[in-house]
């Protein structure tokens, strides 16, 4: 009798795993298919770009040649890379310091400060867009790299994730360093930061990806063509060549490749950071 029950339970467990695996495979195909179609269409000619075939019938690389010769696309890529890199580095530094203070230091109002920071996650970007524009204009930050970088540094999600990670670190290491004469700064720099590499790597991917794909704030904050980021460049390219989807998709493919490479390089750190940063 017990063996029959175990057999029935095993079959149910197996069928459940098969169902979940099939569902995951279906979701993966649905998610990856648009990317594959974009890459495929980037190598098609203008006459075949909308034929619906995943494999190009007429293969060409002239779309990429056209993108890099007819518009300053390299400049757009550089602007996006520079802005995203500076924001990522500054955000990781300031967020980790703030998160360490909120997780380890004892001072009046600590929990209230954390809740105030965390509550900003409930405020969407369009709500603060106009006030942010007015402040940037009054400070003379419009049409400058500073105007594109400084407002994007703060992110409550990064502080929250790092704080939850630091709460899970063993206090014994920090207490031993304090007994050896280390101050809070040395504990943070020499002990906490090296132990935070997995979560910092994951946040670096999140921050870089978010700012690489930024569109609304760069569109509002600058009208200088030399400061155009890659997403605005693609948008203007689409406006200029509305029917030439082969050029548009070639530009989108070039813009997407660095992000795909970054994600596949650090995907393990992203998964591990979510598992170990207090998402419970």
UniProtKB/TrEMBL annotation:
It is found in: Cell membrane. InterPro entries: MetI-like, MetI-like_sf. It is a multi-pass membrane protein. Residues 77-266 form the ABC transmembrane type-1 domain. The chain crosses the membrane at residues 20-43, 76-101, 113-136, 148-166, 187-210, 245-266. It comes from the Bacteria. Keywords: Cell membrane, Membrane, Transmembrane, Transmembrane helix, Transport. Belongs to the binding-protein-dependent transport system permease family. This is Carbohydrate ABC transporter permease. It comes from Streptomyces kurssanovii.
């Amino acid at each position: 009798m017990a063996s029959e029950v175990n057999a029935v339970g095993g079959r149910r467990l197996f069928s459940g795993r098969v169902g979940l695996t099939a569902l995951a495979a279906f979701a993966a195909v649905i998610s990856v298919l648009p990317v594959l179609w974009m890459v495929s269409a980037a190598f098609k000619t203008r006459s075949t770009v909308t034929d619906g075939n995943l494999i190009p019938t007429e293969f060409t690389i002239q779309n990429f040649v056209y993108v890099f010769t007819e518009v300053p696309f390299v400049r757009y890529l550089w602007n996006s890379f520079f802005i995203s890199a500076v924001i990522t580095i500054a955000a990781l530094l300031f967020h980790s310091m703030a998160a360490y203070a909120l997780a380890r230091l004892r001072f009046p109002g600590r929990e209230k400060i954390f809740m105030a920071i965390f509550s900003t996650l409930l405020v969407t970007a369009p709500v603060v867009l106009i006030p942010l524009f007015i402040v940037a204009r009054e400070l003379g930050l419009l049409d400058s790299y500073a105007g594109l970088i400084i407002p994007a540094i703060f992110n409550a999600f990064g502080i929250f994730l790092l704080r939850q990670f630091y709460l899970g670190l063993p206090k014994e290491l920090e207490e031993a360093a304090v007994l050896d004469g280390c101050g809070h700064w040395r504990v943070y720099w020499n002990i906490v930061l090296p132990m935070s590499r997995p979560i910092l790597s994951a946040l670096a991917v999140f921050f870089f990806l978010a700012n690489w794909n930024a569109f609304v704030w760069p569109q509002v904050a600058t009208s200088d063509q030399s400061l155009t980021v890659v997403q605005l460049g693609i948008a203007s390219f689409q406006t200029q060549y509305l029917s030439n989807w082969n050029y548009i998709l070639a530009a989108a493919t070039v813009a997407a490749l660095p992000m795909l490479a970054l994600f596949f390089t650090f995907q393990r750190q992203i998964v591990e950071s979510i598992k170990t940063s207090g998402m419970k």
